[in-house]
Automatic annotation (TrEMBL):
SUPFAM superfamilies hit by this protein: S-adenosyl-L-methionine-dependent methyltransferases
Name of the protein described by the UniProt record: Cap-specific mRNA (nucleoside-2'-O-)-methyltransferase 1
Example of a GO cellular component annotation carried by this entry: cytoplasm
Gene Ontology biological process terms from the UniProt entry: 7-methylguanosine mRNA capping; methylation; mRNA modification
Composition skew (Basic and acidic residues), residue ranges: 1088-1103
Catalysed transformations (reactions): a 5'-end (N(7)-methyl 5'-triphosphoguanosine)-ribonucleoside in mRNA + S-adenosyl-L-methionine = a 5'-end (N(7)-methyl 5'-triphosphoguanosine)-(2'-O-methyl-ribonucleoside) in mRNA + S-adenosyl-L-homocysteine + H(+)
Lineage: Eukaryota, Metazoa, Ecdysozoa, Nematoda, Chromadorea
Domain of life: Eukaryota
GO molecular function, one term: methyltransferase cap1 activity
UniProt domain RrmJ-type SAM-dependent 2'-O-MTase: residue ranges: 23-268
One Pfam match: FtsJ
Localization of this protein: Nucleus
Top enzyme class: transferase
Biological role: S-adenosyl-L-methionine-dependent methyltransferase that mediates RNA cap1 2'-O-ribose methylation to the 5'-cap structure of RNAs. Methylates the ribose of the first nucleotide of a m(7)GpppG-capped mRNA to produce m(7)GpppNmp (cap1).
């Protein structure tokens, strides 16, 4: 088949051919978008859909930089000219949230930075290796690339993308063999540049983590066929080096070719050290073997790879699936070539679905045509892209009007007044002031720097040209479009010990208003400084390479119109260093270095430069000269914003007024009137507010008079405004039911108390309604009442002790476990337990109130306080074991951990010490007037019991639980500490004040599914027996048994012998601590523990030994399977 004929058939047969490049420069960007979505946004790390669409909305919504204060996202684009991968990644991260590093072959396949239209190329820094050719197979280039990236970010990148390949026309069947070296070198780049996964390490004091857990970097690389042992070995090594890997052929890849991508997630330390070292050594060996015409055939022994069944099954399935699709589409191409009039009718619909599925807007990239102009400086012709008229970027006037409207309102200041002691005296608090060190004395050195896409050079405005903008040509610097900064152009120095050596010019950034279309002008000073600091970190780059084209008289008008590539030129950029606002106290502690400079002694202060490692133990080593100080008062600060001082002052005023009441004196003012009137912004706001409220008062007083004179008139907008107001306030539109007061005699006190009676159709539900509402025909609550005995046999039957959770029980009696129900139809709580298993009765053990529609499983017990020698009872409390419904929130189907967290929050907001209630009594003198003969008599105080939530603990934690043994009621009793209502819950302060008795333990299996039993199956009817439960237990004995069901939960008694003798082997009252330790594998002695630790350590060292591949074990997680396209349709079915 002819090439032209094949291309025509492919364009009509490929259902996704019309996706093309969209608004990006080439199809590679669309491939990245496709892969990013398929791998659940693990390429761009944009997991939050709301934040992702806020930065790049698909519709016409306004953009917003929601990641302004998040750390920058770093990526590397290798062998990927002209840069479609990077253009997509910079667009997806948006604004200044990402920085890329590029490495590719120099020449015609170089990055085309001038064609980055979807995002700014100012965040992309290119590098071509120590040899300057961008050859990824050169070992020297690989080493210099790793050093280049490490010098700039020090931690590795989040993502490495490799898209290397070359033409194999006529040798398509040998493409894998010919590409093996580029495979190898790209994998080395991925292992060298990705950040390594770190695991948390606790500090010595145990309070904070010394090392925070951080996910490793991801790696994406293009492959072709993977049949040879060499390719298989590379993939297997990636399988060991990353948490998981995937092989996938995206729908944006031509379906008939052998192209596919390997995606590796989260690099581990084994891959970044030993595997990387091994592959670098292999590459060096292959470099030396080229001259001998020798080659490396395999990297990992074949029997080791074939011994991993999961890996082989995944690779086999992946290869067969891609091969099947290739065969299908090759046949389809042949059919479409034989029938020129046919085409795939789903192309338009699939393109629309794909863009929507990938969260991409649907518009095409504007066409641009090349134009060559002569560079006035060099005299050479350079290429310039001219966009169509309707796509021309805005001018500097448009930029200011877009961000300021009719008035320019930026908090950056150009002309600054002199700072004297009077200024500080007028300021109510020095804490409001922030100081910026200034390296230049001349006021005109402060420049308002503006970047627009309509001008190739930056524009500036200062005092000398305060009415217009002019070109900024002091130093060479580029900024993304729509950026407005306040800067000083100064010199950066390095300390040689005796003098300061100038390194070059830099920009000292004082403030910012707009950062690449991100308007930060109305933010406070601290937030603006943080934003511009991140902006400088991703914009700073050392240099960039630019191609020079010259006219070739031999070429005529063909090709590039007589122009051909001549050479490269390097543009070196000045660095952006951001000034750090400091408090006045920090200004007095600032350290300076004094050196002899230009014939006089000059003070220098240290700054963090571009490639410095920002570590506390390594102070900055670059310096700027110190000339003066600029003081700022943040626009968001308020007078006397020191919380402690204002509070202390107002408390003193209140105490003074308390003492002045007896003297009939008063305080007339708190702040001097002169100080308040001197704050123009404050006075303007107060004046405007008072005038507006007074105007409305006068208007409505006149309106009231008019309506009083005309009784038949009314405001016709009332109904509409009421509807609009409720909708605007997000309130439902219904009226409160009317209720009338009714008085009943309290049987205890004999006094009349008010009772509200609601209308019949608004009566709250009963307890029966409550259960039917949350269970339907079947009652399904995971709270259990009757619990089987816990023995060693039970734990042995459990597949894993990690499934078991233990709850300490303060009461021994089984009937003390109560199903507590609160409904709005009953003033008192209702309870059900074993004794009253067929009905509910009033819960009167202690005084406690709960919101309506609440179902808890509790124990009523006593809370104690440790006096040192004995336990002092403080009163009754509720020990909450579990919950099903919390104030209409059904948590019954949640797992144990989630239910416990919910009921813990519930208890925190429900607990209260006491409440005050009014008592009304009958007054015979009042008759039926007023309150119907009732009048207020006095207040009574109701004290409530506290809800304390039991905390499920693992079996190992149960063996480590600490108890306090005290003499109590004639015997020794064990107590365990709990968090009470008023305790400060801090990790460094465990509970020490309040205690509960310990008489047993309740043990639950958290992985067991919830058990359901019908409500109408409760009259001792036979039910199907379940594993681990006897037939007698499976019978439904009463209503409560049917309500809560049965589950494999267990109980064991704790006696004082368990606490005093943890090594007790047998005890008739229940399971011993020693038995629990033995069953869950906790070492009995320190000697056994050290022996086991040494054995594990030795086994790990043997496993990680790269000298013998026979002992390396693959990762336990399986590779991710490929996914279908966005339409959900199998790509082989047309």
């Amino acid at each position: 088949m002819e090439r032209k004929e094949l291309d025509a058939a492919r364009s009509r047969a490929n259902p996704y051919e019309t996706v093309k490049a969209g608004f990006f420069q080439n199809r590679a960007a669309m491939k990245t978008a496709n892969l990013d979505k398929i791998f659940e946004w693990r390429l761009s790390w944009e997991f939050d859909e709301e934040r992702r669409l806020a930065k790049n909305p698909i519709n016409d919504k306004d953009r917003c930089n929601v990641d302004r204060f998040s750390p920058p996202f770093y990526f590397a684009d290798v062998c990927a000219g002209p840069g479609g991968f990077s253009e997509y990644m910079l667009w997806r991260k948006a604004y200044y949230n990402a920085k890329g590093f590029g490495f590719t072959l120099a020449g015609k396949d170089d990055f085309k930075l001038d064609r980055f239209k979807a995002a700014s190329s100012d965040y992309f820094e290119t590098f071509y290796g120590v040899n300057g050719d961008g050859d990824v197979t050169n070992p020297d280039n690989l080493e210099s690339l790793e050093k280049f990236v490490d010098d700039r970010i020090h931690t590795g990148v989040h993502l490495v993308m490799c898209d290397g390949g070359f033409s194999v026309e006529g040798q398509e069947n040998l493409q894998e063999v010919l590409s093996k070296r580029i495979y190898l070198c790209q994998f080395i780049v991925g292992l060298s540049l990705c950040r390594t996964e770190t695991r948390p390490v606790k500090a010595e004091n145990g309070e904070k983590n010394a090392i925070v857990a951080e996910k490793g970097g991801n790696f994406l690389c293009k492959l072709f066929d993977v049949f040879t042992p060499f390719s298989m070995g590379l993939i297997y090594l990636m399988y060991l080096s990353f948490e998981r890997i995937s092989l996938h052929k995206p729908i944006t890849s031509r379906p008939a070719n052998s192209e596919r991508y390997i995606f590796c997630e989260s690099l581990n330390s084994f891959g970044s050290s030993k595997v990387k070292k091994y592959l670098v050594e292999v590459n060096n060996r292959m470099e030396s073997m080229e001259r001998k015409k020798e080659d490396v055939m395999e990297l990992v022994p074949d029997e080791l790879i074939r011994g991993d069944d999961d890996f082989m099954e995944y690779i086999r399935t992946s290869i067969e699936e891609i091969a099947r699709r290739q065969v299908f589409y090759l046949k389809k191409y042949r059919h479409f070539a034989s029938n020129p009039g046919t085409f795939d009718q789903d192309q338009a619909k699939l393109r629309e679905d794909a863009l929507k599925y990938w969260d991409l807007p649907d518009f095409e990239r504007p066409k641009d045509t090349p134009r060559f102009n002569r560079n006035r400086t060099s005299g050479h012709m350079e290429e310039e892209r001219q966009m169509s008229q309707n796509q021309r970027p805005e001018t500097v006037g448009d930029l200011f009007r877009r961000y300021s409207g009719d008035r320019v309102h930026f908090p950056i200041k150009r002309q600054i007044a002199r700072f004297t002691e009077d200024v500080l005296q007028r300021c109510s608090d020095a804490a409001e002031m922030r100081a910026l060190l200034m390296p230049e004395r001349d006021p005109d050195s402060q420049v308002l720097l503006v970047s627009t896409a309509g001008h190739k050079t930056l524009l500036m405005m200062h005092r000398r040209n305060g009415s217009y903008f002019e070109a900024f040509q002091s130093i060479n610097v580029t900024l993304p479009k729509s950026t407005i900064l306040l800067v000083q152009c100064t010199t950066l120095y390095e300390d040689t010990g005796k003098s300061m050596h100038p390194l070059g010019k830099c920009l000292w950034v004082l403030d910012a208003a707009v950062l690449n279309e991100d308007d930060v002008s109305e933010m406070d000073l601290k937030a603006r400084n943080a934003a511009v600091r991140k902006f400088a970190a991703v914009v700073n780059r050392l240099q960039t390479r630019r191609g020079i084209f010259e006219k070739n008289p031999n070429k005529g008008r063909g090709g590039r119109g007589g122009m051909e590539f001549s050479r490269y030129t390097y543009d070196t950029f000045a660095e952006l260093i951001v000034a750090e606002p400091m408090r006045m106290k920090a200004l007095t502690e600032q350290k300076f270095i004094v050196r002899q400079h230009k014939g006089s002694r000059v003070a220098f202060f240290p700054v963090w430069a571009r490639n410095d490692r920002r570590e506390p133990q390594n102070p900055p080593k670059k310096y700027l000269s110190f000339e003066r100080i600029s003081l700022h008062k943040p626009i968001t600060s308020r007078p006397a914003n020191s919380e402690s001082k204002v509070k202390k002052y107002l408390v003193e005023v209140n105490n003074r007024m308390e003492s002045m009441e007896r003297k009939k004196e008063d305080v007339m003012e708190l702040v001097p009137d002169k100080l308040i009137r001197g704050d123009d912004d404050f006075m303007e706001y107060i004046r405007t507010s008072i005038e507006e409220i007074a105007r409305r008062q006068v208007f409505y007083l006149k309106k009231y008079r008019h309506f009083a004179s005309n009784p038949g008139t009314f405001d016709q907008d009332q109904a509409k405004l009421r509807e609009d107001a409720l909708k605007y306030w997000d309130l439902p539109d219904f009226e409160r039911p009317k209720d009338t007061p009714r008085f009943n005699r309290n049987r205890t006190s004999g006094h009349m108390e008010e009772e509200r009676q609601m209308s019949q159709n608004q009566r709250p539900e009963t307890v029966g309604d409550l259960f039917r509402r949350y269970s339907g025909d079947r009652v399904h609550f995971p709270i259990k009442r009757q619990i089987a005995r816990f023995t060693e046999d039970v734990l042995q039957r459990c597949s894993d002790a990690a499934e078991m959770r233990a709850l300490l029980m303060p009461e021994r009696d089984p009937d003390s476990q109560v199903l507590l129900v609160s409904t709005a139809g009953h003033k008192t709580l209702l309870m059900m337990h074993r004794r009253n298993g067929s009905y509910f009765e009033a819960f009167q053990s202690i005084n406690v109130t709960l919101p309506k529609s609440t179902i808890l499983l509790v124990q009523c017990t006593t809370l104690y306080e440790d006096t040192g020698k004995s336990m002092h009872p403080l009163g009754k409390c509720l020990w909450v074991l579990d919950a099903a419904v919390l104030n209409e929130d059904d948590v019954s189907e949640m797992d144990l951990k989630a239910r416990n967290a919910a009921v813990r929050k519930f208890a925190a907001v429900v607990n209260r010490l006491q409440t005050r209630r009014g008592i009304f009594e009958k007054n015979p003198n009042k008759g039926r007037g007023g309150r119907g003969g009732m009048e207020f008599s006095r207040y009574t105080y109701d004290t409530f019991a506290e809800l304390i939530v039991a905390e499920p603990m693992r079996m190992k934690a149960l063996t480590e639980q600490k108890f306090i043994v005290r003499q109590h009621k004639g015997s020794r009793v064990a107590f365990f500490p709990v968090w009470a209502r008023n305790d400060r819950r801090e990790p460094q302060n465990p509970p020490k004040k309040y205690f509960l008795e310990c008489h047993g333990v309740r043990i639950q299996n958290v992985l067991n599914p919830n058990f359901m039993l019908a409500r109408n199956e409760c009259n001792r009817e036979e039910v199907k027996p379940r594993p681990g439960v006897s037939t007698e237990q499976s019978q439904c004995t009463n209503f409560y048994d049917s309500l809560v069901g049965w589950a494999p939960d267990y109980t064991a008694n704790f006696t004082i012998e368990h606490i005093l003798n943890p090594e007790l082997e047998q005890h008739p009252s229940g399971l011993t601590m020693s038995g629990v330790r033995r069953l869950i594998g906790v070492p009995q002695t320190a000697a056994k523990s050290e022996e086991k630790t040494a054995t594990i350590k030795r086994e790990r060292e043997e496993t990680n030994d790269m000298a013998d591949f026979g002992v390396v074990q693959p990762l336990t997680k399986k590779p991710r399977k490929s996914e279908t396209g966005p339409s959900g349709k199998d790509e082989t079915e047309d």
